[in-house]
Design goal:
Blueprint (H helix, E strand, L loop, with lengths): L5 H8 L12 E6 L6 E5 L4 H12 L7 E13 L1 H9 L10 E5 L4 E3 L1 H6 L3 E2 L14 E2 L1 H12 L13 E13 L2 E9 L2 E4 L3 H21 L10 E3 L4 E2 L5 H18 L2 H17 L1 E4 L2 E8 L2 E5 H18 L5 H15 L9 E3 L4 E3 L5 H17 L2 H16 L8 H10 L6 H12 L2 H6 L5 H18 L4 H4 L2 H26 L3 H4 L5 H4 L12 E2 H23 L1
Antiparallel strand pairs: 1-2, 1-3, 3-8, 4-5, 4-8, 6-7, 8-9, 9-10, 11-12, 11-18, 13-14, 14-15, 15-16, 16-17
Helix pairs in contact: 6-7, 6-21, 7-8, 7-9, 7-21, 8-9, 9-10, 9-11, 11-12, 11-13, 13-14, 13-16, 14-16, 16-18, 16-21, 18-21
């Protein structure tokens, strides 16, 4: 990265030169993509003096990939007890919204990004994600290790904090990459990323989709198996594997490859499809069935059958290559024989002896299989597949499956309406989205399946708009009101997912191996988990969102 001129950097601070700042501390984060960035602070009695000290060091930097500059613009003095109370009130892990400055016998300063990326705060042993608060506290081992790295000093205990002045602070920040300067913005819940406004949202979305697809494809080896995921604080690889997520991630790659007209991406995903059929399938009593290993045990899941069909169907749809038709037929026959009863009830999981292990495990499987069967039917035009699909659709409507508000069911009902339109299907689809839309709008975590649900619901509303019996479903006034509501929350979720779940480089730089994770997708409250299925859902949500925005603009 070419070092920007001092005059260009000075201009960044010009708006603050005549303001009475509570402090004049400048914080520089810098480094290469190969390792965790370094963070250094610069003190001065005035902002100009801090800038002088900053530039003296800045001139020595060479070969940096990333530079981030923070200026403390607001801070609050608290006691050690108040600090612990404030930390204990944080309702989700890693939802830290302030930096911490310690002044006294020892000077210490930590950006919130440093603290969470180095796991300086950890939940208690009773914390269960989504169930109870994390009850965060300092992890002495992690704290000592990071302080030694940063300040070349050992803090053997935290007792000195009770005798120090402690400040909680907020900053104004800028990120420099490839000679470009990005102003950063606080989006809440600890997310401090580049400013994204209406004017550049579309370009940023294109960037996130393109780079996100590169991230996911890089997790796929030349042999066709994925690196399953990371906990990025310490570059810990998640060693599990899951057949459903293997095939669903391939589906997302095919979908994204189609959207970007990226033949290399499609070709690489094809390698994953071959590997999946070679290594994740069994033939049991003549039936082709997808398997999952749970330690020494094997499970056969309806969802795995579904996603293998779906990935193969997507490949066929975008290439015209029918090489997987025989496998798709065999998978569907196994579904009909083993996983769906005569009265269209589903069985979710069998053990290795094809004994029922879980009749119901998770609602996803039901929507996944219906959606997959419909995609296969669209390609193969075999009537028995549609009959099987219709039996499932009828049962889901009769049993009020809209109560689950599942994104796969949203996909499935929209797909079903391509082939048969009835008022009960439209009502089902609307309830699936609208009966929980207030919760979806207010959900604070990144939750990309909510975007997927709303995009599919918006597509369905376009079908309902031209449905000849629409008045039997809903009045015109209510239709346009509900359509507007779905579309509005869909736009909100698309922006929310981007600024709460995308690993922009200005955040990735604080983790152990930035080059592995930049422009991937993460779950902040689950140790910044970055699994392939996280990337899958973000990509599918964003790709389909791009498509529906185009359709709505033409509407």
């Amino acid at each position: 990265m070419k070092r920007l001129s001092e005059s260009a950097l000075t201009e960044l601070f010009a708006p603050f030169a005549n303001k009475s700042l509570e402090t004049s501390i400048i914080i520089l984060s810098y480094g290469k993509t190969s390792k965790r960035c370094s963070v250094k602070e610069f003190y001065g009695k005035t902002l100009n003096k801090s800038l002088e000290n900053f530039f003296t060091f800045y001139r020595t930097l060479v070969g940096m990939d990333y530079v981030r500059i923070d200026l403390i613009v607001k801070e609050k003095l608290v006691t050690y007890e108040e600090l612990n109370e404030k930390i204990g009130e944080i309702n989700r892990n890693n939802y830290l919204t302030f930096g911490i400055r310690i002044d006294g016998l020892k000077k210490r300063l930590f950006l919130k990004e440093e603290m969470v990326a180095n796991a300086l705060l950890v939940p208690d042993k009773n914390h269960k994600i989504g169930i109870n608060p994390p009850n965060l506290s300092f992890d002495l081992s992690n704290f000592k290790s990071y302080v030694n790295k940063k300040y070349h000093s050992w803090d053997y205990s935290l007792k000195y904090l009770s005798k120090s002045k402690i400040y909680l602070f907020e900053t104004k920040a800028f990120f420099i990459e490839n000679d470009s300067i990005y102003e950063l913005k606080e989006y809440g819940f600890g997310n401090h990323f580049r400013v994204i406004d209406k004017a550049d949202f579309e370009d940023t979305l294109d960037l996130v989709v393109t780079k996100g697809a590169e991230f996911l494809s890089h997790q796929l080896s030349d042999k066709g198996k994925f690196i399953y995921g990371y906990f990025p604080c310490y570059d810990k690889i998640i060693k599990n594997y899951n057949a459903i997520r293997h095939f669903s991630s391939l589906y997302a790659l095919f979908e994204t490859g189609e959207s970007l007209s990226d033949q290399k991406l499609i070709a690489k995903a094809l390698q994953g499809l071959h590997w999946g059929f070679e290594n994740l399938s069994d033939t049991v009593a003549g039936d082709l069935i997808i398997k999952d290993h749970l330690g020494r045990e094997i499970e056969y899941k309806l969802g795995a059958q579904a996603l293998a069909i779906l990935a193969a169907a997507k490949y066929t749809q975008i290439t015209g290559d029918t090489q997987f038709f025989d496998k798709m037929r065999s998978l569907i026959k196994t579904v009909e024989k083993q996983f769906i009863t005569e009265n269209a009830e589903t069985i979710h999981v069998f053990d290795e002896n094809l004994e029922v292990k879980d009749k119901f495990r998770i609602i996803y499987y039901d929507g996944e299989i219906l959606f997959s069967l419909l995609r296969a039917y669209e390609l193969m035009k075999e009537e028995e597949i549609f009959i099987l699909s219709k039996g499932l659709m009828t049962r889901f409507v009769e049993n009020n499956y809209e109560k689950y508000h599942d994104h796969w069911l949203s996909y499935a009902v929209n797909e079903f309406l391509k082939h048969e339109q009835k008022k009960e299907y439209f009502i089902f689809g609307m309830k699936n989205a609208l009966n929980r839309i207030d919760f979806i709008e207010k959900r604070d975590t990144a939750y990309p399946t909510m975007l997927e649900l709303l995009v599919a619901a918006a597509k369905m509303m376009l079908k309902l708009e031209t449905y000849e019996h629409r008045q039997e479903v809903i009045s015109d006034e209510e239709f346009y009101k509900r359509k507007k509501r779905i579309v509005s929350v869909m736009h909100h979720r698309a922006f929310h997912e981007m600024v709460t779940g995308t690993m922009f480089p200005e955040f990735a730089m604080f983790f152990k191996a930035p080059y592995k994770i930049t422009y991937g997708f993460f779950a902040r409250h689950d140790r910044f988990r970055m699994r392939i299925d996280d990337a899958e859902h973000f990509l599918s949500g964003f790709v389909n969102y791009r498509g529906i925005v185009e359709a709505l603009s033409e509407d």
